[in-house]
Specification:
Number of helices: 17
Distance between the termini: 38 Å
Shape: globular
Number of strands: 16
Largest sheet: 5 strands, antiparallel
Strand order of the largest sheet: 11-10-16-15-14
Radius of gyration: 28 Å
Length: about 550
């Protein structure tokens, strides 16, 4: 973290004197849509309190008064025009005093209902260094509950769209040198060229900036309230000397991943090298500080059948070429399960056919034969490394398969119920299925900080690994993944998934696959069938990095 004390956004923490510009007409008591003013008034005043949404004239007057006070550096007057004076005043004061932002020009756009979009053009000046800063944000005008006055609904994002509760805008010399992150071949990785890497590069800078040999520069940044989170750099006034940080990423695979996810409103993809666990690509659309591809928690649908199949094969309950019943539906401990569009496979069909066609009932029928409702949870941890506290080099979520009984246990077998995964987890599960041994994914080499990597307690038998690959190859050749994988070369395999989500009309689309020594997994929110949306995302990444 950078040096400098935090500004506490707490009422009573500051004693401020208003600037010379008069805003008497707007100097109202702070009045929150949930509290803030004292609410004291006479009976005659109460009878004249306005109600209902603010009028267009009130919205225009309130927003103009707020903008004028803010631009003039009068934090007190601006805060008085919000519904949370105590929260707004220190943030607005910090804008000039801690972030050193001046010469502020705010240009509002026409209101949209009670929302007023605007652009901010300003100048950051520190120790003789100056640079322009510009961005767009918006505010909402609401009616105060006690005064009835039109007021700005206060949230820190009013001041800057990336500012969150308790965070602080600062300008100064960073205690963390900048880094030059490079891919496995030495190609420089920047957030401008690879937007999805922005949050990852910020984290790598925080963790490895001081040990990478660089020197600090002068910057404007957002310091989060949570000290475990990285600072968000907004502007560089003077560059320091960046230190070099080696990553496992591959620039070609990363570029393909960035292109692929942009084709959908909400999509994530991760690629991993099975033989080593090296993460080759991570991409999200939209990009946010919360990295969905690495930190998300969602039901992965039938892609989890890779793990379930491994369990059933290990226990000797099935073989890839042995017969496996696939009726259109099945009842398990009072819970009914069916296949997509209630399809069934004819008698004598093999387990590979059930896997490649993604037959739910073929898997659920075998739960009782495992003689252990917690068998899948044990397989997840002992073989696939799920929940072992992965030390990838950045913040990740390791996936979860809780021990369940009855219908919940059955739902887990087909990747529903309480199973929680993200694209990184599913790419790793696919990688483990390919090699038989869990290799904890990493985005920076272990040699960088000598951290302890997670290790699964056992590997899959060679015969099970071979059968898993055979079934995944069939899925890519003629099963549910054939269309998506048609353009992928090399030794290839796949598994599709469609995860049903309560309250969501269309399923989430999941897909995982491999080509030679590269595995990738993707999820597209409300994308439908796995092969339709997530499949092409995975295929594009595999073509670039396979």
């Amino acid at each position: 973290m950078r040096s400098g004390a935090k500004v506490a956004v707490v009422g009573g923490a500051f004693v401020l004197v208003a600037g010379g510009i008069g805003y008497g007409a707007y100097s109202v008591l702070g009045d929150t849509a949930g509290g803030g003013g004292d609410g004291t008034r006479s009976a005659s005043e109460s009878s004249t309190v306005k109600t209902g949404p603010p009028s267009a004239e009130e919205i225009a007057q309130t927003s103009k008064g707020f903008f004028d006070a803010w631009a003039a550096g009068d934090a007190t007057a601006a805060a008085l025009l919000t519904n949370n004076e105590a929260g707004a005043e220190p943030v607005l004061t910090s804008y000039g005093e801690d972030a050193h932002i001046g010469k502020v020009k705010i240009t509002p756009a026409p209101p949209v209902g009670t929302k007023v979009p605007y652009t901010v053009e300003a100048t950051v000046t520190f120790e003789g260094k100056s640079k322009p800063l510009s961005y767009a944000s918006e505010l909402t005008v609401v009616r105060g509950l006690t005064t009835g006055k039109a007021l700005v609904d206060w949230v820190p994002a009013v001041v800057h769209p990336q500012l969150t509760e308790g965070a602080t805008l600062r300008t100064g010399e960073s205690s963390t040198p900048t880094i030059e992150a490079v891919d496995r071949n030495g190609t420089v990785l920047t957030k401008e060229k690879y937007p999805s890497l922005g949050p990852i590069l910020d984290t790598l800078r925080q963790k490895y900036g001081e040990s990478s040999g660089g020197s600090a520069g002068i910057e404007t940044w957002i310091e989060p309230a949570d000290e475990s989170q990285p600072d968000v750099n907004l502007l560089t006034l003077a560059k320091g000397r960046p230190g070099k940080v080696q990553t496992t990423l591959d620039a070609n695979a990363q570029a393909a991943a960035e292109r692929a996810v942009k084709k959908y409103a909400q999509a994530s993809v991760v690629a991993v090298k099975p033989s080593t666990g090296a993460i080759r690509a991570v991409a999200n659309n939209p990009v946010s500080e919360f990295n969905v591809a690495l930190q998300g928690k969602q039901a992965p649908g039938s892609t989890l059948k890779i793990m379930t199949a491994a369990l059933l094969l290990e226990k000797g309950l099935v073989t890839a070429n042995g017969a496996a019943e696939c009726p259109k539906d099945v009842l398990y401990q009072g819970a009914s399960f069916h296949n997509l569009k209630n399809f069934a496979l004819p008698d004598g069909s093999t387990f590979t056919q059930s896997f490649a066609r993604s037959c739910n009932t073929a898997f659920i029928k075998l739960i009782d034969d495992t003689k252990d409702d917690a068998a899948l949870a044990k397989e997840a941890r002992e073989v696939f490394g799920i929940g072992l506290d992965w030390q990838t080099g950045v913040v990740t979520t390791d996936g979860s398969v809780p021990e369940e009984v009855g219908g919940e246990a059955a739902a887990q077998y087909i990747g529903q119920g309480t199973v929680q995964m993200n694209a990184l987890n599913m790419a790793s599960i696919t990688a483990t299925a390919m090699t038989g041994t869990f290799q904890q994914p990493v985005i920076v080499p272990r040699s960088l900080d000598d951290r302890k990597l997670a290790q699964a307690s056992r590997s899959l038998p060679a015969s099970v690994t071979q059968q898993l690959k055979t079934m995944m190859r069939a899925t890519a050749a003629w099963g549910t993944g054939a269309q998506a994988m048609a353009s992928v070369g090399g030794d290839k395999g796949a598994k599709t998934g469609s995860a049903e989500v309560d309250g969501q009309k269309t399923s989430n689309s999941w897909f995982t696959g491999f080509s030679n020594d590269l595995a990738a997994a993707a999820v597209v929110q409300t994308g439908g069938h796995g092969g339709d949306a997530a499949g092409p995302v995975v295929a594009e990444v595999l073509r670039a990095g396979g």
